[in-house]
């Protein structure tokens, strides 16, 4: 089939490449000409495992092309997937739908009369019905559940597909697009527009709630002297709870969970449902950043003014160069504001971090970052940080003091090597004293 993908950011670039991999002819459309040029030359402007190979293969074969022209997209596509951004509005927690509205308006003006316009962006419930009322075109919604870092595999082998459709024809078209994925046994849920939009926002709200639940338990552990890591391990053995998304620490960031729970709470409020639960999920999450800043102050004897602090990690999670709403950088920037001399090391995200936070220092290697530090903060759990030898690291720093903001380090090893080790939600290691 001939598909277009409108908006070729993280979601759209992945979707376009994966649709080409499924055998479709794909035209990616983006308002940003630099992005169009880069992708057209087979270059992916962000780090995502497996994606550069797919883009290169399909741009080389001619099955995947990119353009800025909606006229070209309209003439080409039988099905148009809208993957533009839905960021948080500056004046409230609500989703900014201007990119979605602009994309649908442009498609309505250029698409063939029998083309199917499919929204993939995460939108507040009610958006699809509003667009369907506005335009004389058939609309469907097909939300996306991919995780950054696993985007290609999550698109080609998703846990489920959800089709929000208003006619048997729309469902048949989407079944044809995803035929190889469905043939592999992927569960399909077909629903009306409101349910479909809610599946997406509810999924992200549930994931955020699970993380904030375990972080709330971390707060109780801190007050009561318990260990949240052991607590999470024991909880996770219960099949009804499961071990995933129970990693306590610095909390969630990224381009989706924080903005999506705020947009959902805002939209629910408009519908007369307070959904205070999500406000609390957000508040618990933001308190985790405060807690790590507090632990940094404690480690420095009460204030960080003048302290040389090394921050390990800048990406919002390991495996990426994405720094959108990065908890690690939020903490680094706070400490810089409080007068610390902050040096960040991240294996992938340093360039993006440098552009967004030019006042922080950046090191090219872990060793350079550690050299002369008064305090080390572990804020994004890249696997290589677990490989750091605490004894060797102790010889590099000025003072062996560390805060494990992600709970991934072995407290006993670091303590045995002479480090003063602190972690949110965990007691002071035995044998260390204060
Ligand atoms: N990043 C992710 O892992 C996932 C994102 N989502 C949702 O997908 C949507 C897109 O997210 P991202 O890809 O992360 O955003 P992004 O900001 O990386 O990409 C959006 C792209 O759309 C382009 N664009 C904006 N307006 C346009 C227009 N009128 N015409 C053509 N192109 C236009 C921008 O230039 C940009 O390249 C959001 O609603 C997000 O919540 C859903 C699941 C996963
Ligand atoms: O709508 C979206 O865009 C996507 O948002 C999340 O995916 P993503 O933002 O890529 O990242 P996650 O793996 O969910 O991690 C989000 C944040 O939670 C944090 N996290 C995750 C798990 C955990 O146990 N504890 C924890 O603090 C991570 O460090 C990270 O900062 C969802 O997992 C995807 O299903 C969804 O499609």
From TrEMBL:
Pathway: Nucleotide-sugar biosynthesis; UDP-alpha-D-glucuronate biosynthesis; UDP-alpha-D-glucuronate from UDP-alpha-D-glucose: step 1/1. This is UDP-glucose 6-dehydrogenase. It comes from the Bacteria. NCBIfam families: NDP-sugDHase. It comes from Streptomyces eurythermus. It is an enzyme of class 1 (oxidoreductase). It catalyses: UDP-alpha-D-glucose + 2 NAD(+) + H2O = UDP-alpha-D-glucuronate + 2 NADH + 3 H(+). Belongs to the UDP-glucose/GDP-mannose dehydrogenase family. The lineage of its organism: Bacteria, Bacillati, Actinomycetota, Actinomycetes, Kitasatosporales. Residues 310-411 form the UDP-glucose/GDP-mannose dehydrogenase C-terminal domain. The keyword Glycoprotein does not apply. Pfam families: UDPG_MGDP_dh, UDPG_MGDP_dh_C, UDPG_MGDP_dh_N. Keywords: NAD, Oxidoreductase. Its EC number is 1.1.1.22. One of its GO terms (molecular function) is oxidoreductase activity.
